[in-house]
Design a protein that fits this description.
Layout: E1 13-17, E2 22-26, E3 36-38, E4 119-123, E5 128-133, E6 140-146, H1 153-168, E7 177-180, E8 192-197, E9 201-202, H2 203-208, H3 215-234, E10 237-238, E11 247-249, E12 255-257, E13 264-265, H4 286-289, H5 298-313, H6 323-334, H7 347-355, H8 375-384, H9 395-399, H10 405-414, E14 420-421, E15 427-428, H11 452-465, E16 474-476, H12 483-488
Antiparallel strand pairs: 1-2, 3-16, 4-5, 5-6, 6-8, 7-8, 9-11, 10-13, 11-12, 14-15
Helix pairs in contact: 1-11, 3-5, 3-10
């Protein structure tokens, strides 16, 4: 059953307990299928359709996509091996693939009376995501529920940071907030609901599917990842959890970076320690595996390098059971690093490395990943996977590599929204193919919040100031058949999250 309804003609109001909080909404008496229902403007947030539906693209073959936003655990889907490629190939529209994780592919509307059910499409450490329908225009969107926001001061500030980032982002390859549902009175404020664009799949599902990926697919995907990451890095943001499952993709291969629950502004003071509880293990940079107390945006570049290798080989590049074994897999390929390359590692990790037998580099093995592992591809990959973060390419440097020239051309020829086609059939290109953020993301407010009550009040006021005012407002509909399931949906269990870093000291 769907979760979003339209406002009834009678405008009847109902008191309801909205997923752990008290609120007032208008619930349609004849249509109770939808989770989101129209509400009085004074009580609920509006749904702003900024961003628009993706335009049909013909730059590369279409991907038969499955539902996204599914943040999988490191012990299950992350270890899933790719299936054998099909000769027919799902890419390009010849073959419809069955979705993973028991999900069904997005149905194409066949008539105006067809109702697409609202349902969960993923969960992670910091939120639950449902695919829902906007009752006003029938557009499918993603509704992210952030439950139990105010458990601790640290967690509440993290949620506030993520929400501010989602509202700050304005980039084609970065997921942003379309709107936030208006919160109840401050006394009952416990959960946050964010509306974002609904994408059709993610890169993990595509990699492990039997669909054929051409060299053009790899280049276009890698270009968009780096393009979005350049925008984030220009805003001084480190994502800290770049992995295929956090790269959403639609059927015409447009890609968006998502899940900013671990993101933060870079720390310029190297004497300040930063948490090591970041990045899914398979995509974790050597400096993190070796206990670095401080790190930079280079950890994101390493993660993208791992994904690049995974796109080429259709398997996880460095897959191990523990952080120590993960480091062993890396040195099997890159060779034993010298002391200079380990300057950011903790003493215990350096000692461990020096006690191990010295290994020579085995970089030629990268050519065996696939036929797409050309000299240019391997050259870029090895520069992104430099052991020393100071020697690793920056995102801007990676984008300038000749390997990505074709990906850039394809993306801006027919996939992007920043360039436009003229009436005579020519293409008017933008002056800046890889735009940066207009200014750095401001995180100075975090130091001003010293108590839970301060965070709660500031967060409530922030949401109220960011509500759209030009559309009919929406609210959670407790009359929905799916309401109980939505209300009880929780975040991932700690055992399903990535393992903690190894304690070297």
């Amino acid at each position: 059953m769907a979760l979003v309804g339209t406002r009834s003609s009678s405008g009847r109001q109902h008191m309801m307990a909205g997923v752990g909080e008290r609120s007032v909404g208008v619930v349609p008496p004849t249509h109770n299928a939808a989770i989101l229902a129209a509400a009085q403007p004074n009580y609920y947030a509006h749904l702003d359709p900024r961003g628009g539906a993706p335009q049909p693209g013909t730059g590369v073959g279409a991907i038969h996509a499955h539902h996204p936003h599914h943040r999988t655990s490191s012990t299950s889907a992350q270890q899933q091996q790719p299936q054998q490629q099909s000769g027919a190939g799902g890419v390009g529209g010849q073959q419809q693939q069955q979705p993973h994780h028991g999900q069904t592919a997005t149905p194409s509307p066949t008539n105006s009376n067809e109702v697409t059910p609202d349902r969960p499409i993923g969960y992670g450490a910091f939120g639950v995501v449902w695919a829902v329908t906007d009752p006003r225009d029938g557009r499918r969107v993603a509704l992210k529920k952030m439950p139990n926001v105010f458990q601790t001061l640290v967690s509440s500030k993290r949620v506030f940071r993520e929400l501010r980032m989602l509202c700050f982002f304005k980039h084609e390859n970065v997921l942003s907030a379309l709107d936030i549902l208006q919160p109840p009175h401050l006394d009952f404020f416990q959960e946050i609901y964010v509306i974002t664009e609904l994408m059709q799949s993610d890169l993990h599902k595509i990699i492990v599917s039997p669909q054929h990926l051409s060299a053009d697919h790899v280049k276009v995907f890698l270009y968009q990842i780096l393009r979005g990451l350049k925008y984030l890095h220009s805003a001084r943001i480190i994502h800290r959890d770049i992995k295929p499952g956090n790269l959403l993709v639609n059927s015409n291969c447009v890609l968006k970076i998502c899940d900013f629950g671990l993101a933060r502004v870079e720390e310029p003071d190297e004497s300040k320690h930063m948490t090591q509880e970041v990045v899914t293990q398979y995509y974790r940079a050597p400096e993190l595996l070796m206990g670095a107390r401080h790190y930079t945006q280079a950890v994101d570049v390493w993660s993208v390098g791992c994904i690049f290798g995974e796109l080429l080989g259709r398997r996880i590049l460095f897959q191990a059971q523990s952080p120590v074994q993960q480091l062993e897999r890396i040195t099997d390929l890159l060779g034993t690093p010298n002391l200079e390359d380990m300057k950011y590692a903790c003493e215990g990790a350096v000692t461990h490395m020096l006690r191990r037998p010295s290994k020579p580099p085995a970089l030629p093995a990268l050519y065996t990943l696939s036929n797409h592992a050309t000299h240019e591809a391997v050259h870029l990959l090895t520069q992104m996977l430099a052991f020393d973060p100071d020697k690793r390419l920056t995102v801007t440097e990676a984008l300038a590599h000749p390997y990505l020239d074709e990906g850039r051309l394809r993306y801006h020829s027919c996939m992007c929204n920043c360039c436009a086609s003229t009436s005579c059939g020519s293409r008017q290109y933008t002056l800046d193919f890889e735009p940066t953020a207009p200014h750095a993301f401001d995180d100075t407010w975090e130091n001003e919040l010293r108590s839970m009550s301060q965070v709660k009040d500031r967060l409530h006021r922030f949401i109220m100031s960011h509500l759209a005012r030009d559309r009919v407002p929406l609210c959670i509909n407790p009359m929905s058949a799916a309401y109980k399931s939505f209300a009880s949906s929780t975040v991932a269990h700690p055992s399903e999250l990535p393992p903690s870093p190894h304690q070297w000291d």
